[in-house]
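Open question from group meeting: does this chain pack into something compact, or does most of it stay loose? Before anyone orders reagents, we agreed to write out a predicted structure and look at it together. Recording both the input and the output here so the notebook holds the full record.
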Amino acid sequence: MPAITRASLNRVDAAGVWFDCNDGFACRVTPVARNLFRVLFLRPGGLREPRTWSVCCGRAAGEESAAVATKSESESVAAKSAAEASSLAAEPAAAGVAIQVPFTDNLPRSPLLPSPYDPPWEGYDRLNIPFARVDCTVEQTTVALREQGTLPQSGSTVTEGAVPQAPAVVIRSSQLILTVRLEPFHLSWAVPSSTAPDSPAPGSTALDSGSTVFAEDRECCPFRFSDRSFAFDHAMKRCPPNAAAADAAHADAVGDAAGDAAGDTGSAGGSVSGAGTAPAAAGVEAAAAAGGDFFFGLGDKTGPLNLHSRRLAVGMRDALGFDPIQGDPLYKHWPLLMTRDGHTGVCYGQLYDSLADGADVDLGCEHSNYYGPYRVWRARDGDLDMYMGVGPGVREVVGTFSRLMTGGLGGGRGERGVGGVEERGVESGGGEVGGRGRVEGSGRVNEHRGQPPPLSPSSPALSVGPALIPRWTLGLHLTAMPLADAPDAQARISRFISAAHSTHMPVSAFHFGSGYTTIGKRRYVFHWNLAKFPDPQGLVGEMRSAGMRVVANVKPCMLVDHPRYGEVAADGGFVFSSGSPAAGAAERGGSGGGGGGGGGGGPGAGVAAGAGAEFLQNPRAAESPVSAEARPAAISQFWDGLGAHLDFTNPRTIAWWQANMQRALLDTGIEAAWNDNNEYEIWEEDAYSHMFGRSEPLFLHRPIHALLMTRASFEQQVRAEPGRRAYAVTRAGSFGIQRYAQTWSGDNSTSWKSLRYSNTHVQSICVFCHIMIAQYECIHMALTLFFLVFFLSSVPNPPPSVSHYPLLSFFATPRSPQNPSSPPPPSPLSSRPSPFLHPIPPLLEITRWNLRLGLCLSLSGLFNCGHDIGGFSGPPPEPELLVRWVQAGLLHPRFLMNSWKPDGTITCPWMYPESIPAVRWSVRLRYRLIPYLYSLSFRSSFFHEPIIRPTFYDFPEDGRCWRDGDELMVGPMLLAAPVVERGARQRKLYLPSQKPGQPEGWFDFYSEEFFLSGQVVIVAAPLDRVPLFVRAGGIVAMSESTVDFSGLHDEGSRVLRVFPPPVGPAAAVGGAASSSAAAAAAAAAAAASAPTASTAATAGAGGEGGESQWVLYEDDGETLKGDRAEVHVHMRWDAQKVVVTVSLVHVQGESGGESEGERGGAIKAESEGVSQGESGDSSREESGRGGGYRVPWETLKVALPAADTRELEIRWGGGGGGNGGSKVVNNQGQVVRVEKGAFVWHSL
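Structure tokens returned:
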């Protein structure tokens, strides 16, 4: 394919910086935010995709945001006119010009649009997206050609010994620097060195002394566009993994494995590596950097989080039973790649805004002798429209692209339910704790003491974002296809409700499978089978009386014999086949707009003055709509028949869908739509969509149908109940679905491999044997090892003498620490003996799991996600697997059991009587954690923070966190280590450290034992517990009730569990790992008094004390614009005392007068209680001044770890509360009190 080899600066105007390229191409660079630039290439024939839905500006048309100033006011100038910009090319090379890219929007408001803060239904004009203006400078200069093998500048001569120079244009904001080398054409991205996370590593480059290059194009031919099709490539340099660093990491893993196999001794429950020492993580950052680029994102990708050395497709498939290691693509079209640069540690992301089929990304599989290490983005069609955003950390880059996709960049005042957001005095980000630092919500650590910044959502700057979910969606949801498919479906579902009640299992929602729509065995959307469901409204009412909300499955395809197929076909409501005049014109016109510039070369060819008007011309825009008779529906296979897919780019189809959703579902009492099977697998090349009157080939925009289907469902729910938050679910989609819906990983399979996606141990041995044969030609050793392990796998427990043989003991079942001569007792839930009760060490293990897919979704901006607990397809889960699935699922925002089994088995909490207590305990733990999880959902919507995230999100400086592991963070406070291996009753995990050598620690969530950070520990993992740890300084809000769970997600009691670390001499709570009888007895006592997670004691954190804070968000969980309360908790500790200060802030919502569907709303925040620094009697009452929301509790208890003997002082609003507690009265007369208390666990 021909390459873009040279360019010249054309002009700088309100739309950005324009370049003319060879062969009639043009390139436009637009600053979107201080850390986010956009690069758009325009073909001579115009855009293939003239509209976009991928980004959201977050404000209404015509509403202009203030500029984000990056230079002094005197240096900023207005955007130059076209004439001034044209003369810029002739200015001296060293001249710097300040520009300001203003807000522009010429798009009319869509009549379908209920909120001015979403993109128009027909999408934004790709050349005229109404972003806020951003100040930046443009400077012409020269740069050195650093690499050999680059194309020489035409007409230039190279003198021996001289450094070749090339003309360049530098576009600079305060956070991002783009250098455009004009010939050979090349883009280089840098950050000011002051913002880079570390000093540049060897191999990194710098534009000047004040900047650090973190990404750049391949030196030769980085951009190539086909002259025979619409395909294109974009190749960039890649930092490959360093072999030495990889070997070192491998050696560490082997060392850990050897320690495990040798049977490390310790107190009851396991051991601690390096107990009593400072974290051995010094230098791990350099080791991680030497490991090469770390690639992540791309939506729902299987395999390890680091996507390096893989080739991955971008697209949507109905991927039933996908392989959790190599399955690709799955359900999401998500061309967002994020990278941690292997040289500098800078994190950045690239969003390729294209919905066209056929894109893939090669992240190191491909090599060429001519280019050096590179990676390449390839597309078979579409436009090259790339957004480059820099962090420089993971937290910032994830937040930046979430804002881009959901509207947080725009600065409009609108929002999805509860006022705007502001983080006063602190950047949004994670709560690192330690020493004298503090946890600032999920904010970054401050190394100084001072007034903790409030974290109240009260600024419109971050007002729109991922949908704020109703509180009830955090409870347990159940569904199963066999229930709705049964002939007596209504009776069976009634018995299902009774079973939940009789087993005392809390359930918040039931999801109807599509069986309610059947005629015979086939499914017909919006059709109720009244033979199976004689009284749908009565059944829904029965569920609501049991506390369950109801969700119904809907599908976008109508079988050709659907009773209402004819009326949709007559209205042209289906994706249609070509052959119509419109389709032919679209094919001849190049599918996407643009007429100007056809052919010729020269500066500015095809680029009009001003905003590039010629590229906005669409030859199909003036064509009259084609009659329904000329548009036969595109027929394709769908489930058990042939059907046609609804066209959600046709306003008449949207209206039909919403009307029938209201009639069939919402009028019946069903609250939400489960948008399923919306991958639109129509593979006929002649399939076309209406595209709001523009008739465009389906392969250019397939994912938009899933997005608009979900939006149509969401907005009809808002219309049906204007004052309430809507909840929607979608399986497929593209950028923007998180504005409307929750999603999940799709139709996974039931297996331990799917849970952890480490296959059986025999598979792992096969991998090792393959390596032995391929690398070392050790065929005999490989075969011997394989048969040896195969033999050991057939024996429930190896003979005692096996421990005397190192090779055999390497694979042997670990002995119980209390009685090393006998194995641990078998699980009462196992249906058969387990050959291993501990995983094979990392040398022979594929340490990856299906739950990484959830982390991948979350890092990609899909924060509200989860899995089908127990697995959707495949055999029924065994009892132990079911329990472990529930434990892993309770950590995710989406907590739902869904299954389809060939034998009709229904995966549900009570499917095995022997597992009910363990499942019920875990479900109740989920409900007790809802106050914490609901606050996390607030932060995800307002501050664009993932709810679940890998440990490197919160601990980027700990190089070990960048290794592939089995742990995850749930918000900034909780570290979870789900058990994902059959028979395992112990769990090895690494406790992250924020900075090497910084005194930090972790508390066991159950026993409240303290551990030093930076260590590998082995903890007990009984079948009824998921290992959890709380950061030192952590604050975890939970419900207090231990018996009555009838309140479900609305349970009103609250307890704040606070975990101040030990300080000074008291921190030495133990010593090195010990196997003494006293230590064992102490651990056994702790295990008996609390849920078990017993380990050896560790050295303490030391230091002089510290502080942390958190905000608990309280509201009614459903109102769209209602009042809320924020409980601001600040904790300070030293060696003698722990002081907890609680402030209650009322936030007043919109008081009416807003048109239907709008989400905007001014808010008013007022504090309750004593002013800061004022002391007072603990029994005094303060008059509330704020809003009228009544918190659901009257007493807020604060609980220290049971072993912490320090004085606990409670203060209200900064006043002296003493030890007797304090209380306050709000303006509705409600008395609330804060007092000391003990945390009590619920029973099985």
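Observations to bring back to the group:
The mean pLDDT is 73.
The longest strand covers residues 1137-1148.
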